[in-house]
Amino acid sequence: MSAEWVCVQRQQDECRRYLDQFKVLDHPLKQSTITVLESRGTRSGKVPVAANGISLGSSNTAAMSAATLSLDPLSIAFDGSDPLSQFAKQQVTSLGKDPLSRMAAEMEGALPVAKSTALGSRSSLSKSKEPTNLLELDLIEPWAARRGAILNKYTTSEKLSIVTSFLTGGETIKPQTTMSEKVKYRLEQLDDFDEGSVRQMLDLSQQEYVVKIEQLNHELVQAWNQDQRVKALKIAIQCSKLLSDTSVIQFYPSKFVLITDILDIFGRLVYDRLRTKADYVHPGTREMTSLPENFTPDMVPESAKETCQNWFYKIASIRELLPRLYVEIAILRCYSFLAQDEFGLALRRLTKMIRGIGDPLVAIYARCYLCRVGMSLTLDRTYISENLDDILMIYHTIFNGGIRSEIARHRITLNGYASLYLPALDWILQGVAILTTDNQLDDILQRCKEKKNPALLLQSMMQSFRSDFIASRATHFVQILSTISVEGLSRGQLFRLLGSILSHTPPPAEQRLSVLSSAMKAITSLGNVEEFMQCAEMWAQYTSQHFGLKEVDIFLGSVLQQMAPKRIYEQHYHELQVITDKIVSNAQDVHGILALDNFLPLLDLFQKESIKLEVCKNILTSYRNATACDNAIINDPVVTNALMYISRVLNDSVNALTGEDERRQISGLICHFIRKVDFGRDFEQQLAFYVEARSVLSNLDTALSTLIHSVNRLATSTRRIVKGQHTQKTAAFVKACAAYCFITIPSIIDVRTRMELYLQSGQVALLNVCLQHADSCFEAAINLIPEVPRTVENDGKVHSTEGFIKTFIVNLLSTLVIVPDNPTQGVLYLLRLLLEVVPKYPFEPTSDILSSIYLHVLDFLSVAAQEVYPYHIVNVISNDELYGSDPKFIAEVNELCCTVCDKLLQHLKVLLESNALRAQSQLALDLLLKIITGADLSVDKMFTLTVHLWNLAVKNRTVIEAKQLQTVIQYTEHLAQVTQLESQRQCLWMLLERMKSRK
What we know:
By secondary structure, this protein is mainly α. The protein contains 45 helices and 8 strands.
């Protein structure tokens, strides 16, 4: 043994770590500022900010030679603003929209109808500009928002056909030099069209059909760009003629969308061409300028008007009604070049012309296109009402015998056929409802209700009219829907739509209960379980939002009554899941919902494990969201059992294949529930709940950790209530808590978590004077050190656990200071066990963690040898009182100090052999400080060792900072001044002289 360590008594003041202290003038977290001189590389465009926070004017910017910037790295990176504000600023600068709005704008911009047409899109107006058409009022959903839904809904697997003459090859372009040749060539083109040069493509799939339509779109634009106006017109005519084909009737709404996209492009091309030719001389100048946005017909030159009239003459010469209508509607905006009030006249004229179309489906979509274009041109709504009148006049023909035989030939149901009318009817009724009074809407409702089979009209009305109008007449609508004939649609579909509206816009308070009762009575009597569940899915939200627990329980009871017979619930898991989610997420009293008589029976209907898991997860998520921001607790046994049942389902779903994210999500939900359970002063019931939860949540380490923390907190609360003076009953209770923790911890898989929980549980047991339990916890924690892996993976990165080992041992040593020795185990048994176990951990060969741990052990032993320890626990007799500085105890401490010191000296030798000069010098200084602080320097070996350590550090002074050596000298001088032992003082002064002589 090369060291002969003898601990000395010292003042507690000497325990302060002088080497780690330094004086600061400001709080370290206070934001600092630096002065950055302006240079060519300095960011420009920013308003300088003075130190007092006042922004300086632009006139002072040039005069300022410096600007004050924050030292915060995020502020520097983002020019002084926080990252979120900077990102928001970038978005506002670029598009002025959030990411989803910007994405939607980009997608909408990619669509021909939204990007290329001026008819179906809204103009960007300044706030001061008065709206010139109905779409600019922002009271109607734009057509672009409906387009995708129509294309997705109305599909077909049948073969389609297309008639065209422009997809199998281009036309020969003949050069025309004179006007007569140009007129002759155009007449030849029209004659060729009349002679039947068109070709029919058959057996096209839906995808192929869409591709062909896109090719037609491309051909039209290409022909226009090549000055082939007649070809472009012919393409528009042939596309319009495709809308007369109803051979694949279920695809007709999607065909309408695709064809009108092309017609919109054609209309925009014609309008832009006419506007280009309509340059005029601005009054007071001689220069030709383009027409302004809000031009009037008197600004248009006669040549441009003549060209515009020629286009309408060409279209008027089309023999077939349908293409003549569609093409004229497409270029309807061009009437702005001819007359001021021409729009209204043309729209009413075209409305009457549509009466010549015999097929009601073709006719209603023609009216839809007319209204769609008209809404983008004028504020006049007369033609929309006329179109609705015409629709109501021929409404009965939709259900006549001829139509029924036609749809039978197409092998579709009457319900499927009636649904084809909805996109067009919805758009027209939405236009009718703009700026319309409630009395006028009541008249329309009355007219529709009087029709035979009015279900289609009523559904479209509920989708198109204002929701507040529907909600204020909810009772009336329930009565109508309960009594009318629903041929062509289902009554359940109508009630589902009404429930969706009332969920977002509730009826007046005095009507809500009667509406719910009448609606549920009608829904229950539908006689079709599938329709009932579809309706209940929507009315669940209305019920949970606007009614109490009694009505919700009745609603759930009606659902159970419909689902229970013949295990029919197995076919309606989705609807049941939606109902459960809506009931829980919208409930005002989530605890009351969980305690309802019919709630757990509803959960029992989910027999499929994957569905049941998802439902239970959604319930706990809704519960967490509802209780995250309040101090609400759970003490109702019924609610507790319900949440425990749900937690059991989630716990049982966790296995070896469960992903880490899924495990973390489930654990977070269950832990939130555990922390919410509070039975107040009934600690025994609280502990009983934790015992039950432990048996249920055996697969989740995080949940078990939360339970252990909760039990430790329970034991600490018990001690606080009795003010540290336990009675026989409370002493038995805290021992039960300690036993709970000791038994539960081994169930946790992660070794580091177990160590931390053992240490915490041991500290709580020590606080409650459960010494045997504390010793067991500390011993178990120490024995786990060799099991800690050298590295762990976190977020895809590998991290060493050496830092954790050091932090854990330092925390443990600070606790062991006041832990009394077990009489049956010997002096400092736990420390000896620690010194035996620590080297078994696989430290890195070049790591200084082990030597740092030994230095902390020397600190512990130095404190253990003192007559009075720096801190104690009430009613716990620590070793200072237990041994009373007995010489045998002090001898044991000194022996341990010598052993640890020898290990450090051996490590110094290893560092010397590996030529690690910096680490060797640093360890020498650290060991020197421990010796002069806690060892008796009057022992020759220790004094000599101290001198050698200083010489070793000074020898390698080039690898350490000179300031550090000076600080060690100052600390040694401080110890020489404050120590009360004369022999120690003399040795310190002698050592100080030698240190200064070798500095």
